[in-house]
Amino acid sequence: MSSLPTPSSSEKSELPIPQDATRIQKDKTKTERGADTHAEHASDSEVSHEDKPKLHTSGKPELTEDDCYDKLGFCFPTWKKWTILTVIFLVQMSMNFNTGVYSNAVPGLVEEFHISEQAARVGQCVFLVAYAFGCELWAPWSEEFGRWPIMQLSLFLVNIWQIPCAVAPNFGTIVVCRVLGGLSSAGGSVTLGMTADMWEADDQGYAVAYVVLSSVGGSTVGPFFGGMIGQWLNWHWVFWMQLIVGAITQAIHFVIVPETRATILIDREAKRRRKEGEDIWGPNELKTPRLDVHDVLRIWIRPFEMFIREPIVLFLSLLSGFSDALIFVFTESFSLVFEQWSFSTLAVGLTFGSILIGYVLAYFIFLPDIYRQIQTRRKSGAASRLAERRLLLLLFIAPLEPIGLLGFAWTSMGPPIPWIAPCIFACMIAMANYAIYMATIDYMVAAYGPYSASATGGNGFARDFLAGIATMYSTPMYQNMGSKYHLQWASTLLGCVGFLVLIPIYVFYWKGPAIRAKSKFAQQLAADRDRHTESRRASQARASVGA
User: Fold this and answer.
1) Is 141 domain-assigned?
2) Which among 126, 268, 410, 496 has the fewest CB atoms less than 10 Å away?
3) Where do Low complexity bias regions lie (predicted)?
């Protein structure tokens, strides 16, 4: 699953996506992380100790990011950042593996519990729908109590719910535990948030692209390896394998990943300084109550409010959701399509490799574009920060989705057409799916600044929710649409819809600034930026007087 402007402090607690708010930006070249940058911030921190510390409303001195910048995730060595991010990559893959591998248990569930295939797919549907809500539910807790404990708790609960699924005496047990497992999945609300903990807004492109690859790739790795499970093992092993993968992932996360949330690290530094005799307190230590119910409800509601009221969020989220739903339609339709070539369960699973290849290709296509954007921002500054620039590459890649669907449709006719033909078009669809997720996240972060967490939250919700619904209609659609060419007409319909949902991309590219100018969130963002500008000027003036 694709960051930018600095958020206001009032909104900081809700941001699981690319930005953390109050860090200073004293040097435009501090994106070059190294010893010089580390020393610079250490020096800044020493200077701040000579000044009078910021006083909280309670009257106690409060430690800020400016005072201990060198202790935060932004100053981690590059190797440490990417080690952490690689573990997060595995975590995201593990969670999305759970969404995709379930389809391989359907035949066994039908035989074991004497239910229809459509009824058996309910387990996958409810997991994805619950996953959509789970990502939103976990967000404020990770902001308040830290990324590490929340991710550990999420992984633990997800793993626990695999056990009753694996030994379920009836199908109802599986459905209930799948719902609980979906709600327990923190997903992108934490993983993307950790990129904001370690990279400045203008430098997050590579990290976000990496996390997005894990998000889209995990749902395809499931059926890829699920084919092997279905070939040699019974349905119980679909859930045991989820438990094994989840337990290994949790152990790696437990050992390797430290806390990255800025407010938690500031609290720890404040406690350390108090032991040395300094009277200083962290932001969470001074917050009463620690987690306000009103704030939590506001954070939970805002993504849905923006989804309904903001045209940009609505249409791009629907596009992203439609694109992700296609992958789960493929999960259900591949067995119908490739049985025409007499593929075994294992062989059908391996055909999902074409989708994985498409994701990897799209990832590498985006890397030069990310580099270009970074260089442009460094050379041109604020003049280059127009949000619509983030959609430029998508204008060319997005049409691969409907083109791929139409090509997949009319090459899915069995011999004498070679089986590789529909795989090639599936690869094209995957490239477009990655590009849509990456670019829409990147664009909404740049467009909505402090409200980007809510905007991208709506995006993620749409992807998971629509994917869950897709698992219920995909197979009936491919089996019953038309007569002789039912497989072909189903994909053709999706391709035609694909052309329609692409239209907003081009509208927002050309008319985005005018649309955002009418948005209450964009107007609030402009006011926040003005306040930040005045604050920075005042800070610079005080620094000049002190010098």
Assistant:
1) yes
2) 496
3) 1-10
Adjacent-strand bridge partners of 62: 54, 281
The fraction of the chain above a pLDDT of 70, given in percent, is 81
What are the start-end ranges of the H helices in 381-485? 392-397, 400-410, 420-448, 452-480
Q: What is the CATH number of the domain that holds 135?
A: 1.20.1250.20
Q: What is the 3-state secondary structure (H, E, C) of 168-219?
A: CCCHHHHHHHHHHHHHCCCCHHHHHHHHHHHCCHHHCHHHHHHHHHHHHHHH
Instruction: Count CB-CB contacts under 10 A for residue 354.
Output: 21
In a domain, 292, yes or no: no
Which two three-digit tokens encode residue 417?
């057409």
Instruction: Report how far residue 116's alpha carbon sits from residue 249's, in angstroms, rounded to the nearest whole number.
Output: 34
Contacts of 488 (CB under 8 A, 6+ apart): 409, 410, 412, 413, 482
Measured N-to-C along each axis, helices 205-232 and 188-198 cross at an angle, to the nearest 10 degrees, of 150
CB-based contact 489:409 (threshold 8 Å): yes
Q: Which residues are bridge partners to 55 per DSSP?
A: 61
Q: Which of 204-218, 242-256, 304-318 has the highest mean pLDDT?
A: 242-256
Asked whether residue 407 is domain-assigned, the answer is yes
- Cβ distance 204 to 157 under 8 Å? no
More confident residue, 139 or 127: 127
pLDDT at 81: 94
Whole-angstrom Cα distance, residue 245 to residue 237? 12
Residue 122's alpha-carbon distances to 94, 126, 233, 336, 423, in angstroms, are 21, 6, 22, 19, 27
| pLDDT reported for residue 110 | 92
Q: What are residue 54's DSSP bridge partners?
A: 62
Quick check: 57 pLDDT over 70?
Answer: no
Specify if 37 maps to a domain.
no
pLDDT value of position 421? 93
pLDDT single digits (tens) 437-480: 999 888 877 777 656 667 777 778 888 898 888 888 888 888 88
Radius of gyration of the chain (CA): 24
Give me the number of domains the chain comprises.
Answer: 1
Domain span holding position 442: 12-22+47-56+67-274+305-542
Q: How many residues does the chain have?
A: 547
**Structure-token match 């438990």, residue found:** 243
Tokens of 368: 């030069």
Sign of CA dihedral 228, 234, 235, 237: negative
Kindly report the pTM of this predicted structure. Answer: 0.80
Which of the two residues, 230 and 39, has the higher pLDDT score?
Answer: 230
Separation of alpha carbons 196 and 207, rounded Å: 9
